[in-house]
Amino acid sequence: MTYVAQDRPRIGWIGAGRMGFQLAAQLLDAGHDVAVYNRTRAKAEPLAERGATIVERPVDLADRDVVFIMVSASADLEAVTTGPGGVLTSPDAAPGALIDSSTVSTQVSALIRNEAAKRGTDFLAAPVSGNPKVIAAGKLTVAVSGSREVFDQVEPLLALLGRGVTYVGEDEVARLVKIAHNVFLGVVTQSLAEITILAEKGGVSRAAFLEFLNDSVLGSVFTRYKSPALVNLDFKPTFTMPLLRKDFDLGLSAARELEVPMPLAAATAQLIAGAIGAGHVEEDFATLILEQARNSGLTLEAENVPVDDGLSPQA
């Protein structure tokens, strides 16, 4: 174990997309020294106004105590760690710990864990559940796997990112937790689209149906915060359909490996593929409701009514 807990560790952050930007900002707002790398530098530049140092390559973060990573896919994780200019490629330094919050396969996660160990760097898999608005509301959750001792050291940093940090076990099991979570996300959203369209075709407005559902025991933080999109057809992306398909591919692959039948997930995966084929690639995955409506002979219109998403920012 190389990471040593300190009150103010020097932090590196790789990946300043929609999620990574907001989470790096949380650490900066808490007063931490944070240096940031993003493939498109311009997207990271606004963090400099909040006190971040912007670097040109991941390897420029090799001397940091803790480096967080949040990139889109397995290939991206390999690129920023072991690829040319990766954070694990410096001949002179290596981070004390890597905390990876990307959604990647368990195989690639294990590969990077092994490469980190060769450099004396601890590695935690720490995928998250949420989106930028969830972060602002203080409701992000994190599943973490790896060394329990290292987790205990970095937990205060992770706790700054949201309301719930759960240690789920050794090695790569947090990857499976996140993949299972995102498969459920897709299945629930498809089911929500189906019952909402059923109610609408029977003469009930989407706003009224979802208000009832959200106030019932079946309502959840998720159904409530997706309701404005389903009612008013505002599909500004929080999570796109291609990213959801990637996670379904990972989930169904894990299911085959572990001999777990997942008929609902398999059917939903086909519906997601159909939505992508219909052109829903840049919008939020809540556009599943548009395909459900089309398959049901309905053309949806925005209801243009105020809908509470339940995500008021924390004071």
Automatic annotation (TrEMBL):
<dbReference type="Pfam" id="PF03446">
    <property type="entry name" value="NAD_binding_2"/>
</dbReference>
<dbReference type="InterPro" id="IPR006115">
    <property type="entry name" value="6PGDH_NADP-bd"/>
</dbReference>
<dbReference type="GO" id="GO:0051287">
    <property type="term" value="F:NAD binding"/>
</dbReference>
<dbReference type="InterPro" id="IPR015815">
    <property type="entry name" value="HIBADH-related"/>
</dbReference>
<feature type="active site">
    <location>
        <position position="178"/>
    </location>
</feature>
<feature type="domain" description="3-hydroxyisobutyrate dehydrogenase-like NAD-binding">
    <location>
        <begin position="176"/>
        <end position="289"/>
    </location>
</feature>
<feature type="domain" description="6-phosphogluconate dehydrogenase NADP-binding">
    <location>
        <begin position="10"/>
        <end position="169"/>
    </location>
</feature>
<keyword id="KW-0560">Oxidoreductase</keyword>
<dbReference type="GO" id="GO:0016491">
    <property type="term" value="F:oxidoreductase activity"/>
</dbReference>
<dbReference type="InterPro" id="IPR051265">
    <property type="entry name" value="HIBADH-related_NP60_sf"/>
</dbReference>
<dbReference type="GO" id="GO:0050661">
    <property type="term" value="F:NADP binding"/>
</dbReference>
<dbReference type="InterPro" id="IPR036291">
    <property type="entry name" value="NAD(P)-bd_dom_sf"/>
</dbReference>
<dbReference type="InterPro" id="IPR029154">
    <property type="entry name" value="HIBADH-like_NADP-bd"/>
</dbReference>
<dbReference type="InterPro" id="IPR008927">
    <property type="entry name" value="6-PGluconate_DH-like_C_sf"/>
</dbReference>
<keyword id="KW-0520">NAD</keyword>
<dbReference type="Pfam" id="PF14833">
    <property type="entry name" value="NAD_binding_11"/>
</dbReference>
<comment type="similarity">
    <text>Belongs to the HIBADH-related family.</text>
</comment>
<protein>
    <submittedName>
        <fullName>NAD(P)-dependent oxidoreductase</fullName>
    </submittedName>
</protein>
<dbReference type="InterPro" id="IPR013328">
    <property type="entry name" value="6PGD_dom2"/>
</dbReference>
